Amino acid sequence: WSRDGHRIVGHLAEAELRQPARAEVARLLAGEPDPTLAGISGWADTLRDEDPVRGKATAAWHYVNFGDRGCRFDPSRDCRDNDCVIGAINRSFLALSDRKRPLAERRDALKFLVHFVGDVHQPLHASPRRDKGGNDFQVNIGGRGSNLHAVWDRNLVGSRRLEPDAYASVLRRLPAPRDPTLASTTPAVDWALESCRLVDQPGVYPRERVVGDAYLAKHRPTAERRLRQAGSRLAALLNHALGN
Ligand code: ADE
Ligand code: ZN
Ligand code: ZN
């Protein structure tokens, strides 16, 4: 997602934090320029520019590509060395939950977790195709060249022209996701497979490679539902990791 997409997820999760998690988030984020979930939600994407070594080392953590024979997760094929969004969510969740780890490590884990729970819900971040999540599928939008990945990261949500906090208030009224209760690991695989199946829905890849208002109107509800789900699920992870 774009910066605003991640901010929406942060606002949604913030509204569902229970008090122990809320207090621990405040403690972990003390000293951040904007010490809120929305405020730190885009940090993982800024690493590429601000810390190129770390940006490169974490680039694969934003997505997972499944093989092109359907939506099934094969860790040795799709997530070698746990270097994919599923591995990154599980690792960050573990580090955040472990109060014996250094505060700085847990702070980074929180910042990564907020971001990657958002990303795994962007359908094209967990895709069954071999086109870099639609980055290699060129489209025309508003008379300009772009690609399908950018349309889903940015344009579907951007076309409503709402600020992230106002947008989050709107999306709060959508139904909350039903999820299994958390055990020792996270449901990140399930969320990625949901994304994968959405990419296979008819019309996601526009035949004429033109993205107009009809495309945006048709697929915006899916993008909005995914942000809504990401917010509630992130809150559930944080309430679990940081509850007492
Ligand atoms: N780069 C390679 N595959 C990608 C994906 N599915 N999403 C975003 N960036 C990618
Ligand atoms: Zn993206
Ligand atoms: Zn990302």
From TrEMBL:
Species whose genome carries this gene: Luteimonas vadosa
One Pfam assignment: S1-P1_nuclease
Listed InterPro entries: PLipase_C/P1_nuclease_dom_sf, S1/P1nuclease
Keyword terms, alphabetized: Disulfide bond, Endonuclease, Glycoprotein, Hydrolase, Metal-binding, Nuclease
Entry annotated with the keyword Metal-binding: yes
PANTHER family registered for this protein in UniProt: ENDONUCLEASE 4
Protein's name according to its UniProt entry: S1/P1 nuclease
Domain of life: Bacteria
